[in-house]
Design goal:
Helix content of chain A: under 10%
Number of strands of chain B: 12
Largest sheet of chain A: 7 strands, mixed
Order of helices and strands of chain B: EEEEEEEEEEEE
Largest interface: A-B, 24 and 18 residues
Number of strands of chain A: 11
Shape of chain A: globular
Largest sheet of chain B: 6 strands, mixed
Oligomer: heterodimer
Helix content of chain B: under 10%
Distance between the termini of chain A: 37 Å
């Protein structure tokens, strides 16, 4: 089955530093990847849609300059949390959809990254 | 906007018990409805889905029926197993095939032997 690898699975960083999270589709090409954020006991909230070779589309209220998304290839998207602060501590999850057939293909999720900012 | 409300957990059951996890939604038009499952240490996986009213999605003994009149998509299983212990998420995509999934908060299920 389709596998999405997310790395790292957990990270602790100091306030003010930047953290990069990688999302890779291991056995399929993904033109579209999605980044979600989940607070404790809350829903997964879509942060942005990442399209290969173009700028990401951010959801309302998500700071583009703080959460930098790069989708440089059909198998890799990265989320960089810049100048992290404790309020950025959360669980970040990526998902990917096959390049073809795309529109009705199921989403495949990574295992998530637990970010703790001290 | 669109939203999903599912019953708060955690839910703890004994093996072979009957399971119901309630899910209701608010959306314009006719959304597609999904149940995702997240087993410990793993990513979310699609469990089942239904794309139109009265459709029944089923998989691994779980089933859910798309009820437009009550805007519900309750998850049921007649006899749970320890291996069903996981977090279950109800979700929808808006009419028109939007790729954006709107999730409920998730319900943690623990099944004891």
């Amino acid at each position: 089955g389709a596998v999405v690898s997310q790395h790292p699975s957990w990270v602790i960083c100091k306030s003010g530093t930047s953290v990069k999270i990688e999302c890779r589709s291991l056995d399929f090409q993904a033109t579209t990847m999605f980044w979600y954020r989940q607070f404790p006991k809350q829903s997964l909230m879509l942060m942005a849609t990442s399209n290969e070779g173009s700028k990401a589309t951010y959801e309302q209220g998500v700071e583009k300059d703080k959460f930098l998304i790069n989708h440089a290839s059909l198998t890799l998207s990265t989320l960089t949390v810049t100048s992290a602060h404790p309020e950025d501590s959360s669980f970040y999850i990526c998902s990917a959809r096959r390049a073809a057939p795309s529109y009705n293909s199921p989403l495949h999720f990574g295992n998530g990254t637990r970010l703790t900012v001290t | 906007g669109d939203s999903v409300t599912q019953m708060e957990g955690p839910v703890t059951l004994s093996e072979e018990a009957f399971l119901t996890i309630n899910c209701t939604y608010t959306a314009t038009g006719y959304p597609s409805l999904f149940w995702y499952v997240q087993y410990p240490g793993e990513g979310l996986q699609l469990l089942l889905k239904a794309t139109k009213a009265d459709d029944k999605g089923s998989n691994k003994g779980f089933e859910a029926t798309y009820r437009k009149e009550t805007t519900s998509f309750h998850l049921e299983k007649g006899s749970v197993q320890v291996s069903d212990s996981a977090v279950y998420f109800c979700a929808l995509t808006s009419q028109g095939g939007s790729e954006k999934l709107v999730f409920g908060k998730g319900t943690k299920l623990t099944v004891n032997p």
